[in-house]
Amino acid sequence: MLWFLFVLVLVAVATPLVIERQRRPISRAMQADAPGRFAKLTRGVTHYQWAGPENGRQIVCIHGLTTPSYVWTALVKGFVRMGFRVLTYDLYGRGLSARPEGLQDPEFFRQQLAELLEDQEVDEGGILVGYSMGGAIAVDYTQTHPQMVERLILLATAGLGATVSPFVKFMINVPVIGDGLMYTFGGNLFGKSSRAMNAALAAAPNMHPWPMEERQSQGFLPAVLSSYRHTLSVDQLGAHRAITKNGTPVLAIWGDEDSAIPLSAMGRLAEVNRAAYQDVLKGADHGLLLTHSDEIIPIVQEFLREAV
C-alpha cells in the first residue's frame, strides 16, 4: 500500500513536469522573425525595441505579469507623437526573452532592467512607466536607482493590493502541489486571459490582435508562478514611502472596473504620497492601457507639464 501511495505521489509530481518539458521552447527562428533586437545580458537574451526620434526624451516601459511588450503598442504610438524616444522590452520568461532559472523576485527584474539600460547606454534619468507587475518593478527600480528616474508613471500598478482567485492563491501558497497545478492547468487559465487580451487588442484604437503562442511556450508558466510568489507577494508601501522622500514625481492611473487591482490601492498610495498625481478611468478594467490609451495620453501630457 505504501509503495502504491509512493508511486501515486511520484506520478502526480512528475506528470506536470513532463507536460512543461513538452511545451515548445522559444526558438531562434521565432526570435529571428521578430521586430526589434536582442541584448545579451547575464541571464540570457532580452528582446527589446526602440521607437521615436533618436534625440527625443526617453521613456522606458515595463509590461506586466503575463502579456509581453507588444501590450504597449497603442501607448507607444501616443508617446512617439509627443516626441519621445520609447524603449519597450520583454521581461525574462515572457515574449521572446530568455527563460532563465531562479527566483523571479524584485532583484531578478531589477538586474534585467539595469543591465538592459547599461547595454543601451542609457546613463541619465528618464521617465519610467510600469503596468501591473511592471509597475511594481518600476517602483522597486525607482527606489533603488532614484538618480535614473526623472518621473514615474504607474498604470494599474501591483504592489499595493490585488485580487487573486482562490485557485491561484492555492497554487501560490502550496509548494510542489501548486507547481503541479500551474503546469497542468495554467495554460488553460491564462489562455482565457489571452482571449480576453486579444479582444481588447482588437477593440483598441489602431490595433490588431497579436499571436499569443509564447504564452504556451516552455518556461512561461514557471515564470508566472515564481513572479506571483516572489514579486507580487511583496507589499510596496515602504518603497513608495522612500520614493516620496526622494521627491520623484509620481503619476498613478487606475481603472474603476479593474478586477485585478482594487481601487483601495489608490488610497494606500495617497497615505504615503500625498503629492502623487492620481486619476481613475471610468469603465476601464485591467486592460486599460489598450482600451483607454486615448485617455491616458492627455493625462500623461498634463502630468509632465505640471510635475516639478
Which spans have pLDDT < 50 for at least 5 consecutive residues?
Answer: 4-12, 205-210
Q: What is the helix tally?
A: 12
Radius of gyration: 19 Å
In total, how many beta strands? 8
Estimate the global geometry from the Cα principal axes.
globular
Total tally of structural domains: 1
Helix content: 40-55%
In the CATH hierarchy, what is the superfamily? Alpha/Beta hydrolase fold, catalytic domain
Main β sheet profile: 8 strands, mixed
Describe this entry's structure for a reader:
With 308 residues, the chain is α/β, with parallel strands linked by helices. The protein has one domain: Rossmann fold (3-Layer(aba) Sandwich), CATH 3.40.50. Helix content is 46%, strand content 15%. The chain has helices at residues 2-21, 28-32, 73-81, 106-119, 133-144, 166-173, 177-203, 220-230, 237-246, 264-272, 288-291, 293-306; strands spanning 37-41, 44-51, 58-62, 85-89, 126-131, 149-155, 250-255, 277-281. An eight-stranded mixed β-sheet has the order 1-2-4-3-5-6-7-8, sandwiched between helices. Strand 1 and strand 2 (44-51) form a beta hairpin. Helix 6 (166-173) packs across helix 7 (177-203). The longest helix has 27 residues, at 177-203. The radius of gyration is 19 Å and the shape is globular. The protein starts with a helix and ends with a helix.
